[in-house]
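Hi W., the guanosine-5'-triphosphate complex you wanted:
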Amino acid sequence: MSNTDQARAGRWRWLSGGRQRRQEEVILMMLCALSIPSILPFGVYRLMQGSWASAAVDLALVTGMMAVIVHVWRTGRYQVASLGVTIFYSAGMLVTVYLRGVSLVYWVYPTMIAAYFVLRPVVALGINSAGLLILVVILVARLELLNLMTIVVTIALVNFFAYIFAYRTGLQNKELHTAVELDFLTGVGNRRAMERKLSEYAQERRPHLESSLLLLDLDHFKQINDQYGHAAGDKVLIRLAELMRGHTRSSDRIFRYGGEEFAILASGAGLSAAARLAEGIRAAVASATLLEGHPITISIGVTDMDKELTPAEWLAQADKLLYAAKQGGRNAVRVAEQTS
Ligand SMILES: Nc1nc2c(ncn2[C@@H]2O[C@H](COP(=O)(O)OP(=O)(O)OP(=O)(O)O)[C@@H](O)[C@H]2O)c(=O)[nH]1
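Structure:
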């Protein structure tokens, strides 16, 4: 991390409560925080006017938003809270229009757009469409047809545009994410992707899903570069990645961990299954022609991803075993001892 990044991280540390937060969490908390000063003055004003029902709706919304901020801040769970906030907010808005009349319909627009910030576009569209239907029921007896149609069409258009925008942004984010996490040479995941996947796995709560980590390293790769040139070395790396793809299941993940070092996260594979996988890949590399006229071998360290340990400890363990395989003469697999 650069000095500027570190300074920035330090400056915003108070906002994250000392831990790394997902973008969705921060957006939800910010939306709730923004809505409090937007609604509270109206609630207080209506309280002073004696409009008890309207004041109660406004103050309930403010209290709800505060509760969501505290909940998300403390637990980091935002998915159910995002849905809850959207439904609660939409209901509050509809009750306000019902109680105070059509002039309050302006609140519908920002409320509906906010839904696209915190929910999947299709979910936001579903909730907003239901809200629009209820709004029509509330207003149908109070407005002329032309006025009602104007409200319905403008709300529908705002939703349509917001949906397209959110959908397109989602697609772009996905493409960006894929590009950022891909190794440009071999097409497998890069080190950043590996670290994210390992930390996701560490947080995964399902205890029955045992998985293993394989670290693979080409033997004497420097010689290949020196003897045949860097381009030939690159071709070996590409062919090795293809070979690994052919030997793994679609649920397994392959990463390029360093220059000539790869990692495989074998999902659902215990130590013995992972050892068989490693041995299969080692033997396949030894018998394949990754480079014409030059036999190529790899060494592999295999460890299980014990939930008692951290991703850094899994990597250290696999690296130690890989080192042992190299020390033992290369073209070999070393597997961690079974603990249970
Ligand atoms: N062609 C190519 N070579 C790379 C790439 N990244 C790293 N290397 C080379 O990989 C080689 C790694 O060499 P070493 O770390 O000495 O390891 P080694 O020769 O494989 O020896 P052992 O691992 O001990 O068997 C170096 O020559 C690097 O230049 C790459 O993207 N393409």
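The chain has two domains: 3-180, 191-335.

W.
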